[in-house]
Write a structure and sequence with these properties.
The protein is α/β, with parallel strands linked by helices. The protein has twelve helices and ten strands. Helix 2 links the parallel strand 4 and strand 5. The structure holds NADP nicotinamide-adenine-dinucleotide phosphate.
Length: 321
């Protein structure tokens, strides 16, 4: 495993996303929640993964409970990151909900507490006031944000009067917006970008096509519309070519590309221990500059239909099911 050292922490370049744990929308079923998820965490620890990402909203707290149970006896090896769902993030509510996460996780502190989304209505001074109190009492060690723009991330730091060490954002070869400012800023300022959906929810594994699209939560993801799966073909070909060169899989190449960026770590979810093992191994896959450039070119040429343009097709697909 390769580690990223920045902002005073040491994180495995590949972490583990735990949204899948117990979440009905992923459709992995009871045995996944009861058994496989625990085995995934156990194997992750064996392979040197220390970063585990969950949230109070995932499976309404069940993800935190599953992760907490799986980490019993291994607390010192894990860097636990969880998130506050900021519906009304007034300082006392941030504090109360942060403490509730500790109870579900069965720990006396979490390493990183993140605001899951920006809340533009409640002043950042309130939100970060809650964070500061959690830090002061030792309930959380570090503060992070998620889905924040760069100006808002910096404003959060000013409001906290201390470092907001990370911003967790969607980042992959199919979602490159963080390249504009978040990734360069983090690299230059000793901060960390935590890349979520680094496999574009499985699209970049090359496993899905027009005749075989996933269901569940991914019915809401425009990338899995038939038109976009067609458009993704050249990018998937570029991933397969690089993968063949390394005796790897397209998913591993997609992850290796993300974590090649300075101060970026990725937190892929996994539907099996085998996937987790593959993902962990991607930390040691060294892409060449040429491969990186070819993947970038293929990514630049990928123009999926998104946003308002994709909405009618997404609705149609939902109703067809
Ligand atoms: N902060 C936020 O707003 C936010 C939003 C989304 C996610 N997240 C976090 O980021 C984590 C990861 O994001 P994500 O789950 O959306 O997307 P992802 O990691 O890009 O995709 C995960 C899915 O890809 C497939 N997969 C994983 N490893 C694979 C492999 N080696 N080969 C082939 N397929 C593989 C699995 O699905 P199948 O096997 O079923 O295809 C898995 O469930 C989440 O667990 C969560 O912790 C945060």
């Amino acid at each position: 495993m390769r580690y990223v050292e920045a902002a005073g922490v040491r994180l495995s370049a590949i972490g583990l996303g735990c949204w899948q744990f117990g979440a009905k929308e992923w459709g992995y079923g009871r045995s996944y929640a009861d058994d496989e998820a625990g085995r995934i965490v156990e194997r992750a620890l064996e392979l040197g993964i220390n970063l585990f990402d969950t949230a109070e909203v995932y499976a309404r707290g069940e993800s935190e409970r599953i992760l907490g149970r799986a980490l019993v006896g291994h607390r010192a090896e894990a860097f636990i990151a969880t998130k506050h769902l900021p519906l009304l993030p007034l300082a006392p509510i941030v504090v109360r909900r942060g403490r509730a996460s500790l109870v579900r996780l069965g720990v006396d502190h979490v390493d990183l507490y993140q605001l899951h989304w920006p809340n533009p209505v409640v002043p950042l001074s309130q939100q970060m006031g809650g964070m500061r109190e959690l830090q002061r009492s030792g309930a959380i060690t570090h503060v992070g944000v998620s889905n924040f723009s760069l100006p808002r991330w910096r404003a959060a730091e000013r409001a906290l009067r201390g470092p907001v060490i990370s911003n967790q954002v969607q980042y992959s070869l199919a979602a490159r917006k963080p390249d504009i400012d978040l990734v360069p800023w983090a690299a230059a300022n000793d901060r960390i970008v935590i890349a979520y959906s680094p496999l574009a929810q499985g699209l970049l594994s090359g496993r899905y096509d027009e005749t075989n699209a996933p269901s569940g939560v991914r019915l809401n993801n425009a990338l899995f519309l038939a038109d976009n799966l067609r458009r993704a073909a050249p990018l998937l070909t570029a991933l397969r070519e690089a993968a063949a060169h390394h005796g790897a899989t397209p998913a591993q190449v997609a992850l290796a590309w993300v974590i090649r960026r300075r101060n970026v770590v990725a937190i892929p979810g996994a539907s099996s221990v085998a996937q987790l093992e593959q993902n962990a191994a991607a930390a040691d896959l060294d892409l060449t500059d040429d491969e990186d450039a070819r993947l970038l070119a293929a990514s630049d040429a990928f123009h999926p239909v998104r946003g308002a343009a994709a909405a009618p097709k997404l609705l149609e697909r939902r109703f067809r099911r």
